[in-house]
Amino acid sequence: MSKYIRNFLPYCGERTKKINTLVLHCSAHDARHMIRVLEENKLSAHYIVDPDGKIYQLVSEKLRAWHAGESYWRGETNLNHSSIGIELCSLSMGQSEYSPKQIRQTVKLCRQIIKHYQIPQTNIVAHSDIAPRRKPDPGKAFPWPYFAQCGIGLWYDMKDSHAVDEEDVASLLAAIGYDVSDLPAASYAFCRHFAPQFVTDEMNIRRLIEEIYPRDFVLPRELMPVLRACAFKYRLHTKKSRA
Ligand SMILES: [Zn+2]
Q1: Which end of the chain is more exposed for a tag (fewer CB within 10 A), N or C?
Q2: From ligand 1's centre to the CA of 239, what distance in Å?
């Protein structure tokens, strides 16, 4: 018997690329409602993890689920072809803490996928990282540092910030993987992932979804060392994976 609750959706297609990316999402619905909303919009994801830690599988990993949409990361576009997408149920859209059970199960699922497909650490991303103009999920409350401790994705080390003397925000963000054609959007997405204290709470979920980032956002000066330390870490891992 499968350890997942299977509820396959037809909204998927063939892959044309090898799996090398893992995308984390959230939606402000419980699992049943989320499945209905995905169906209505002819979308999908490979998995949904609910707050009780139950995992639903909607699309076979072999197939391309329709979760990322127009996207960019580290030179690749249209990431549905090369990624696996996991949705977490979060009524606050990732603004208040995820449940411990949900996190535990998501960690297990991610570890399995990363190991199976040998996904590089540089390619474990938020939907907001790969679509910074359009998407805010999985939100400021997603525990990226804990995930990194569990071997899922990269986190920075402040001591590395001195190893980089660049000051150019766009080229540092691009070194991590962001599309910097809209610098305020990329800078805000960076904060969502690496400096959530600079992301404002939004009580109105509709507005959070519709107004993704402040159009005039400029990365706070005090975050430059964090940005440099991050860029250092991602560059180091890029070298490692090429070696
Ligand atoms: Zn998403």
Answers
A1: N
A2: 29
